[in-house]
Design brief:
The protein is mainly α. Helix 3 packs antiparallel against helix 4 and helix 3 runs parallel beside helix 6. It starts with a helix and ends in a 6-residue tail after the last helix.
């Protein structure tokens, strides 16, 4: 479980140009994290903390993590609903980000 979370975060954190290969790597990382998020309660808060940290830090690859948040809400709505306060907190930080 810890290993899959670490692997998923590492793959999602892939930066660089938006090549087809990079997008496949990011997608794989997001898929691993969504499945882990869905299956393990104790991982949910950690994954959301990582997403929030990237948003707060205005990381270059913040769009990867916003895409992950979108996919989690779409493909795992009940798990996302159970984590709603943290998701709202993360979304609140978006208003401080400059438009891209």
């Amino acid at each position: 479980m810890f290993l899959s979370k670490l692997l998923g975060l590492t793959l999602t954190d892939t930066g660089g140009f938006r090549t087809d290969t990079n997008m496949k790597v990011i997608n794989l990382g997001q898929t691993i994290l969504i499945e882990t998020f869905e299956a393990h309660d104790e991982v949910r808060s950690k994954v959301l903390e990582e997403i929030s940290a990237h948003v707060i830090a205005k990381a270059d690859n913040v769009n990867n993590f916003l895409g992950l948040l979108h996919r989690m809400a779409r493909f795992s709505p009940q798990s996302a609903l159970n984590s709603l306060p943290k998701i709202k907190e993360t979304i609140d930080y978006l208003s401080y980000m400059p438009p891209r």
